[in-house]
What we know:
This protein is of the alpha+beta class and about 240 residues long. It contains six helices and eleven strands. Strand 10, helix 6 and strand 11 form a beta-alpha-beta unit. The N terminus is likely disordered.
Amino acid sequence: xxxxxxxxxxxxxxxxxENNFLSNIFQSSPSEQDGSLKPKNIFLLVLVSIGIFSIIxxxxxxxxxxxxxxxxxxxxxxxLSAVATIDGTQVSSGAVHISPGTHQIxxxxxxxxxxxxxxxxxxxxxxxxxxxxxPSEDFTKSWYSFHPEDGKISEQIGDKSADDFxxxxxxxxxxxxxxxxxxxxxxxxxxxxxxEVCFTISASSEHLDEALNYFKSRLYSxxxxxxxxxxxxxxxxxxxx
Length: 241
């Protein structure tokens, strides 16, 4: 029969064996002092390296795949106190993550015209959506003047809309980036005709052919596909009379 002291010896012995096993792995050996590693240490380092690399790769992969699970609507609207809903669910301004597909957004506030639009986003797609609500009542006509923060946002939205329009126009008609053209005999510039983009040639009858030849040779050859407006031109270099 074992005594109590004899029973305590076995756990201590097994613990010493465990410590010896770990020390054999991590403790330096004579071969390590010569600049070489024991085979078991090399194997352990390889396993640790593979494990770390696998974790990093998994994190990168999951981050990459998560981008394609949702679509993003970058929403900006003014007034800030307006209520914005997507498919009936209220959302705030900023990045809104939604499922891919077709959705309807509504932005409304009492005293302002309601804005509603249907849009479609594919998986991973991102789109900017900016709206400045127009006052529809007398008591809201001066809203943006008396609410500086809303006024600032509305100016930013207006500037961005103008920039987006210019970028879209120049993508369709690259020559638009060179306008306006001003010479001593004619002017060519972009204008608006009943809400549509048009290009105005301002020249006197004697210089009209010169302006048209300039347009065709240096800007855009297919004049028939453009909405062109002709306007009499007064030469600013010759004074009034």
